[in-house]
Amino acid sequence: MALNVGELIAYLRLDMGDFDEKLAGAQAQADKLDSKNVDVKVKADTAVAEEKLAAVAVSEDAVASTARARTSLASWRCRHERADHRKASELPRGNSHR
Questions:
Q1: Which DSSP helix (H) or strand (E) runs through 28?
Q2: Helices vs strands, H then E, count in the chain
Q3: CA distance 70 to 82
Q4: Separation CA 34–CA 26 (nearest Å)
Q5: For residue range 28-58, what is the model confidence (pLDDT) as tens digits?
């Protein structure tokens, strides 16, 4: 069951003259700046961003170090498994206890 408490109808009357006047004023100010040699200096506090970037760099180094260690370990295991396989293949085969 829907409840309707009424409706609101509104009309806006806009004065475009005021808008055009303010727009013309802003354009005039921009034109004045266009004819001047303006030197804009931007100041920013980048300390927080720099700290976060440094933390990312440390994490990246840790991940790279772990990846290198795992690759080295896998390579070592592979070499030793091959060596063990070679040793096993060199063992005498057959039934030598007859």
A1: helix 16-34
A2: 2, 0
A3: 18
A4: 12
A5: 988 888 777 777 788 888 888 899 999 999 9
